Amino acid sequence: MERLIVDARGTERIIRPFSPYVPEVPEGQKIVFPDKKQYAIDWRKNLTQLSEIYKTIKEAEIVQEEGIYRVPFSNPEIPYAVGFVFSDAHIGSYSSDHDLVRDLLETVLATPNGFLVDAGDTFDNGIWGGLSHEGIMPAYMQAFTIEDIIREFGEKYAACVIGNHPEWMFQASGVKPEYMFARQMKGVVFAGMGLLHLEVGEQKYDWALAHSFWGKSKKNIFNVCVNLRQQEYPDADVFTVGHEHIWGHMKEMVDGRERLYIRPGTAKTSDRYARIHGIAKRGQSMGIAVVFGAKERSFGAYSIEEAVKLQFLRKEIAGLSGIYRTTTEKPLL
């Protein structure tokens, strides 16, 4: 026991230190079995041990709330980078367009200064209801397929959000999906949502990513992006929300700054569930890329075709500029 002076008159009060003092367990709380050992429940001890276990689990997590990604420049002479938005691929479902998925991934690999940002539901993992009959590849093989994509992409896979479909793996078996496919990922893994701090050459941008968010509206498909900005990431530049298989992008000025909203679409373009439940006739094909300036601050959304053409045009111009500089240099004396 210790004494603490609590006022100017010198009044003392007895205090009990939090640790290591543990009071005796009252007799009424002791559980006694005939001819067996006696066990006493101590709630302080239990909560302390639970706190230690929580710390152990947190230290083993690979998901983050925020993360930094430095864009690798394969062609440093081009002062721009292209972020390809990949979302709701639902790999493994017969209702997904796997040709679209393959072509988009090949395009990212072939594009100078290109990188991939994944907004979730990368594999289908349809383990309940009618979705269990859509899978044409076992869920574990779907996860291993994503793992191999991540392996080949290496530093080009900037970020991945865990969506509701992969999360069913955790709900059904206790296995967190990121431990199945993202253990070796060099980019950032977000559980549901997160903030990606992009470093593009000399410039920095903040990209808020969420697989889903509240405030869904078919009359204003960007309402969820606005809510994500207002409620979670007020200082971000780009806001992407997947899940609804809707395609679109727009900019607005907020507090004197440009903000970019993106609904990335899907590869699940033949979706019986969506038709039956009156969500939409079909999913809208993903195909949005964001071009970021590396020397001067600029960012804007384009269709993938436009962004790729623009990047290769810049590569050609950079090559011609290099030839011009070489031919106009004075010979050494």
CATH topology: Purple Acid Phosphatase, chain A, domain 2
* Mass-distribution shape: globular
CATH level-two architecture? 4-Layer Sandwich
CATH class value: Alpha Beta
| Assembly state | single chain
Radius of gyration: 27 Å
Mean pLDDT: 89
Helix proportion: 25-40%
Specify the number of helices.
Answer: 8
Unreliably modeled segments: none
Distance between the termini: 90 Å
Strand count, sense and barrel status of the largest sheet are:
11 strands, mixed
| Beta-strand residue percentage | 25-35%
Number of domains: 1
**Can you count the beta strands?**
15
**Which class best fits the helix and strand makeup?**
alpha/beta
SSE ordering: EEEEHEEHEHEHHEEHEEEHEEH
Question: What is the CATH homology-level superfamily?
Answer: Metallo-dependent phosphatases
Structure description:
36% of the residues are buried. The radius of gyration is 27 Å and the shape is globular. The strands form 3 sheets. Strands 5, 6, 7, 8, 9, 10, 11, 12, 13, 14 and 15 form an 11-stranded mixed beta sheet that branches. A two-stranded antiparallel sheet has the order 1-2. Strands 3-4 form a two-stranded antiparallel sheet. A hairpin with a 6-residue loop joins strand 1 and strand 2 (12-15). The longest helix has 25 residues, at 304-328. The termini are far apart. It has one domain: Metallo-dependent phosphatases (Purple Acid Phosphatase, chain A, domain 2), CATH 3.60.21. The protein has 333 residues and is an alpha/beta fold. It has helices spanning 43-60, 98-110, 139-153, 164-173, 178-181, 223-231, 272-276, 304-328; strands spanning 2-5, 12-15, 30-32, 38-40, 64-70, 80-86, 114-118, 157-162, 188-200, 203-210, 238-241, 247-254, 257-264, 288-293, 299-303.
